[in-house]
Write a structure and sequence with these properties.
Blueprint (H helix, E strand, L loop, with lengths): L2 E4 L5 H12 L3 E4 L8 H10 L3 E2 L8 H14 L6 E4 L5 E2 L7 H29 L3 E5 L12 H21 L5 E7 L5 H4 L2 E2 L11 H13 L7 H12 L6 E4 L3 H6 L6 H11 L10
Helix pairs in contact: 1-8, 3-4, 4-5
């Protein structure tokens, strides 16, 4: 029986991915920071007869990851076929109003957490000469907009880190893929965190933040997660997966076409969408 670990499985993409692989007959470790939130998933697994467990795993804790990895590898017979790095959250706000601690926390979960979990399972994958690491990035790893700086920083960092990881692991037979979803209706934005200093009426970025919310409300967020889960499944089971897998709304325009748009043209488009106007210098 093939085995898979999916982090951040209490809801949204993580839970849907866990259900998909469990329904395919995989042994699923659907980890989450608080396993109490996994009760509905465990109940569905019991109803369907799936081999699914919900171990506690906090990607921001060395001790939690080490304990979870030891238990999962023990239960899986010493090897894991697929790791899906999905856990993360969305932090936003003008960068001047984002404290170093807030940015550090965003990177700790979205970037360092991916490294922490991946490192815990790579020795077993290398020893076996097989395995796949799939990481959930974002179209925000290819293109940035005002106010999204903290989240974009984390996803841009993932782009470089995962590409390096892929090259490093080729000699060991371990496959690496990066999923780049556009916006979907998930708990990611339900649980988003605005910088503590943002949102004040006297903030110099108040108009920009309001414009950000207007633009975010217009985004074509997709409700159906199946196409995204299809891509995750293909990346996880392909014998030779490509590195980047864009999928969903704006993934083509935001992810692919941005590479061909000159910076000045992109900045002009952002000025049309947001109140970005040069302020005249005071005499």
């Amino acid at each position: 029986m093939r085995s898979i670990l999916i982090t951040g499985s209490s809801s949204g993409i993580g839970r849907a991915t866990a259900e998909r692989f469990a329904s395919r007959g995989w042994r699923v470790f659907a980890s989450m920071r608080n396993p109490e939130r996994g009760a509905p998933l465990r109940a569905r697994a019991a109803e369907k007869g799936w081999r699914l467990e919900t171990p506690a795993l906090d990607v921001a804790s060395d001790a939690s990851v080490a304990a979870a990895a030891a238990g999962i590898l023990r239960e899986a017979g010493g090897c894991l076929d697929v790791l899906v790095n999905n856990a993360g959250y969305y932090a936003f706000g003008a960068l001047e109003e984002t404290s170093p601690d807030e940015l550090r926390a965003q990177l700790e979960t979205n970037v360092v957490g991916v490294l922490r979990v991946t490192r815990a399972f790579l020795p077993a994958m290398r020893a076996r000469g097989a395995g796949t690491v799939v990481t959930l990035g974002s179209v925000s790893g290819r293109v940035a907009v005002p106010i999204s700086g903290p989240y974009a920083a984390s996803k841009w960092a993932l782009e470089g880190m995962i590409e390096s990881l892929r090259l490093e692991l080729i000699p060991f037979g371990v496959r690496v893929a990066l999923i780049e979803p556009g916006p979907y209706h998930t708990a990611l934005h339900d649980n988003q965190r605005l910088s503590a200093a943002a949102g004040r009426a006297d903030s110099p970025y108040a108009d920009l933040l309001a414009a950000y919310h207007r633009q975010a409300d217009k985004l074509p967020r997709q409700d159906d997660l199946d196409p995204l889960i299809d891509v995750i499944e293909r990346a996880a089971t392909s014998e030779n997966p490509r590195l980047r897998w864009p999928v969903g709304p704006t993934s083509l325009t935001g992810g692919r076409l941005r590479a061909f748009v000159p910076d000045r043209v992109y900045e002009w488009l952002m000025r049309l969408a947001f109140p970005i106007r040069p302020i005249r210098s005071k005499p």
